[in-house]
Amino acid sequence: MKKRYFMAFIGSIALICLLSAAINLFSSTITTAQTETILVSAAVSLKETLEEIKPGFEKVHGNIKVNYNFAASGALQQQIEQGAPADVFLSAATKQMDALAKAGLIDTTTRRNLLTNRLVLIVPKNYTLKISDFRSLTNSSVKRIAVGEPRSVPVGQYSEEVLKNLGILEQIRPKLVLANSVRHVLAAVETGNADAGIVYLTDAKISDQVKVVATAANNLHSPIIYPIAVIKASKNPQAAKTFTQYLTSTAAKNIFEKFGFGIAR
């Protein structure tokens, strides 16, 4: 009799364990099925800002996970044109977004101007050369000036416009060192490999190794606009739209402004 009760007890325990495992497996399957992961291809000047925004977004939208792909906007444009996966594109200029729109690669109904920025001239923090404004770049003591490659790097496009409108571009062209992203421009100045560089204000703000000596007047270059849109080939378009909408929230705007970005009107 005792043996029969003991076997029944063991059987009950085994059944409970099996039911518990089945429930956990079922719950895990449901959770996995409901979780969507989106890939956001964004201008590298947004790296720290978007990484700070991510936890807040994922806390509010627990079923959506965000991965980032940071690079120069021109490089990201080419990746998307070549079929690389992406759900959202956030560019540092309208030129790259316009190209994708013309190619029919974005959902134009989701496109909006998200942010603005300023263009600044930086030098190494402990530099002794007298560089006080953009025209100082013509001084013979200035040998190397880091700028973005204007054909593919938006900050390079804006920099070229400033130098051209000031009438000094051709004079200093031999000094220009072209970089493939705004962060490479920043690094060149931080390490002293360039006497000066032109970056966004937001990039200068994240570095304690450079100082800003001048800010370009807005009328010297095209408006610095960061447009955002969902990629038409996105496998998770609704999740992508949810993320783009979150970037207009008060929580996201506060982080953007903390890093020095302006909010597009």
From TrEMBL:
<feature type="signal peptide">
    <location>
        <begin position="1"/>
        <end position="33"/>
    </location>
</feature>
<dbReference type="Pfam" id="PF13531">
    <property type="entry name" value="SBP_bac_11"/>
</dbReference>
<feature type="binding site">
    <location>
        <position position="73"/>
    </location>
    <ligand>
        <name>molybdate</name>
    </ligand>
</feature>
<dbReference type="InterPro" id="IPR050682">
    <property type="entry name" value="ModA/WtpA"/>
</dbReference>
<keyword id="KW-0500">Molybdenum</keyword>
<protein>
    <submittedName>
        <fullName>Molybdate-binding periplasmic protein</fullName>
    </submittedName>
</protein>
<keyword id="KW-0732">Signal</keyword>
<feature type="binding site">
    <location>
        <position position="182"/>
    </location>
    <ligand>
        <name>molybdate</name>
    </ligand>
</feature>
<feature type="binding site">
    <location>
        <position position="45"/>
    </location>
    <ligand>
        <name>molybdate</name>
    </ligand>
</feature>
<dbReference type="InterPro" id="IPR041879">
    <property type="entry name" value="YvgL-like_PBP2"/>
</dbReference>
<dbReference type="GO" id="GO:0046872">
    <property type="term" value="F:metal ion binding"/>
</dbReference>
<dbReference type="GO" id="GO:0015689">
    <property type="term" value="P:molybdate ion transport"/>
</dbReference>
<comment type="similarity">
    <text>Belongs to the bacterial solute-binding protein ModA family.</text>
</comment>
<dbReference type="GO" id="GO:0030973">
    <property type="term" value="F:molybdate ion binding"/>
</dbReference>
<keyword id="KW-0479">Metal-binding</keyword>
<dbReference type="InterPro" id="IPR010916">
    <property type="entry name" value="TonB_box_CS"/>
</dbReference>
<dbReference type="InterPro" id="IPR005950">
    <property type="entry name" value="ModA"/>
</dbReference>
<feature type="binding site">
    <location>
        <position position="200"/>
    </location>
    <ligand>
        <name>molybdate</name>
    </ligand>
</feature>
<dbReference type="GO" id="GO:1901359">
    <property type="term" value="F:tungstate binding"/>
</dbReference>
